[in-house]
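Structure, all two chains, one model.
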Amino acid sequence: GAVVSQHPSRVICKSGTSVKIECRSLDFQATTMFWYRQFPKQSLMLMATSNEGSKATYEQGVEKDKFLINHASLTLSTLTVTSAHPEDSSFYICSAVQETQYFGPGTRLLVL
Amino acid sequence: EDKVVQSPLSLVVHEGDTVTLNCSYEVTNFRSLLWYKQEKKAPTFLFMLTSSGIEKKSGRLSSILDKKELFSILNITATQTGDSAIYLCAVDPGTYKYIFGTGTRLKVLA
C-alpha cells in the first residue's frame, strides 16, 4: 500500500518561533495533499488542500499567513506554523491522494 | 450543508461483546464512504464502500453501506482490548476532500 511519512513526529518549541512539518509520499506521486488538525478527543479538522504547483486552498477560519503551505514537488508538502503560540499546540496530520487518501503518522506540536 | 454523523459518540463494552457503529450522511455528491481506526497516531484505513448491500469483511470487522437510506454500519464481533480506538467514518463527495464524522470512541474492557 501507499506510504506517507511526516517529519518530525514530535516537536516542542518556544512561543514565537516557527515550525516546519514535512509530509512525503514515499512510493507514489501526489498532486493533492491535505493538512488536518486534531484536538484531543475530537475528529479531524481539515485545514487546507495543498496542490502541487499552485497555492493552497484554506478552509474557513484557518489563517493562511499563520499556516504556510508549500507543495513544491509531487512527493513533498510542507506546513509551517509561523510565530507559534501555545494555542497552536495540537496534532497535525497530512494525507496524500492516490485514488484515496493515505494518512501520514502525524506530528505532535507543543508550544511552550 | 454536507454532513456525516456518527453514533454513538462513545461506547464501553467487555471483551467478547459485539458492537455496531453507525454512520449516516447527507451529501450533495457521493463517491464512497470510508471507515478508519485511530489509536494514538493517524487513522488507519479499514474499508471503502461504494455500492449498496455488499458487505466488506476483514477478520472480525465487517461493514455495509445502504445508499438508499444514506447510512453505513461497522460491526466488530468478539471484541478485544486492542479494538479500543476512535472509529472514524468519512464520505468522499468525489473530490477526495473527505467529510469526516465526529468519530465513535470505543473502549473494550478486559
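The mean pLDDT of chain A is 93.
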